[in-house]
Amino acid sequence: MFTEENPKRLAQIALVVLLIVGCIAVLWPMIGAVLFAFVVWICTWPLYSEKLLPRLGGRDTLGASLMTLLLVLLTLLPLAFLAGSLASSADNLIDFVRPYVENGLPSAPPAWISGLPLFGADIDSFWHQLASNRAELNALLKQLIAPARQFALALGGIAANGLLQLALVLFVVFFLYRDGAKVSHALYVGAHKLGGELGEEMLEKTRGTVVGVMLGIVGTAAAQGTVAMLGFLIAGIPAAVLLGFATFFLSMIPIGPPLIWGGAAAWLYAQDQTGWAIFMVLYGVLIISSIDNFVKPILMARGAGISILLIALGVLGGVLVFGFIGIFLGPVLLALGHMLFGRWTREENPT
User: Fold this and answer.
1) Which ranges in 236-325 belong to alpha helices (H)?
2) What is the distance between the alpha carbons of residues 72 and 292, in angstroms, rounded to a whole number?
3) How far apart are CA 300 and CA 316, in angstroms?
4) Side-chain-side CA neighbours of residue 343 (13 Å)
5) How does it sit in the membrane (predicted)?
6) Model confidence at 1, in pLDDT bands (50, 70, 90)?
7) How far apart are CA 124 and CA 113, in angstroms?
8) pLDDT in tens, 99-138
């Protein structure tokens, strides 16, 4: 029956919907950083609330400042080390390339290039053509300048965007630490009002899944970086520590570590160290990559309390749909869906 209350009710619903849409529109450009700030907050909140805050006498602002400073140090120190190592490596690369630019290429390529299957003969012919014609070599270098400049600009843009996102994450997480008790209480109250016991259970499942995924990612990355660095040191690879850090960061993507240890194996082969090159390939396949393929799903599944299949599907699908933050969103969504489906199909025991 149509009453006077119905238009008011519809108007209230419309205003609430518009408000929600407006809030989402405002936060959408920063949604990835905000969600990742929540991920960091959820994973580190027990350390902050149970270890640090009691030692400070419950002073929220001081505790949040110290915790954020700790996160800054944990993120900036490795980045500063990598930047210094990359700068040193760039200087070495320039010193290596400068004689070829100034004096031209040697008359014959290295023997291992000519011996490559399928493409070795073509590369050898092209090398002799460039070495005998300095003008053609200069023309080729000029053609490579524009793509190299575009790549450098794109890489600089990605780095600048990453720093801005990191700064936003740290800015948001400071307020989450400072007002963490209020935020946590509000989340549990809202979950209880929306779904009662089910809402609280879904919130706990979300927290457990996020912590489990973070444990799997960071734990696996640390293990891969450590064993990779040991392998590089054993094989005598230069800048083994830098390559270990690179393996740590690139372990976030499935094909990341093979790019590092595969490049190291190719370098060893180019130095006529065939035995060490074979060792590096076997070490990379059997040890470095096996950690990512077997240990990561087990750590994630054990920490989140769900099956390895859901974790794997959630991570892959989440990355394809949401990007990096999908590593966490995908497993969370599948875990919540699995929990709801289980409650729906659960048979009630007769009283």
Assistant:
1) 240-250, 256-270, 274-283, 289-290, 296-304, 308-322
2) 27
3) 13
4) 10
5) Multi-pass membrane protein
6) very low
7) 7
8) 666 565 566 666 656 666 666 677 777 766 666 666 666 6
Percent of the chain as helix, strand, coil, to the nearest 5: 85, 0, 15
> What CA–CA distance (Å, rounded) separates 284 from 278?
10
Average pLDDT for 285-304: 76
pLDDT band at 177 (very low <50, low <70, confident <90, very high): very high
Outline where 179-196 has alpha helix (H). Answer: 180-195
Asked if residue 335 lies in contact with residue 209, where contact means CB atoms within 8 angstroms, the answer is yes
Are the CB atoms for 247 and 257 separated by under 8 Å? yes
CB under 8 Å to 286, separation ≥6 — which residues? Answer: none
Token pair, residue 100, equals 């070829």
At 225-277, the pLDDT tens digits run: 889 899 999 988 887 887 888 888 777 666 778 888 888 888 887 777 888 88
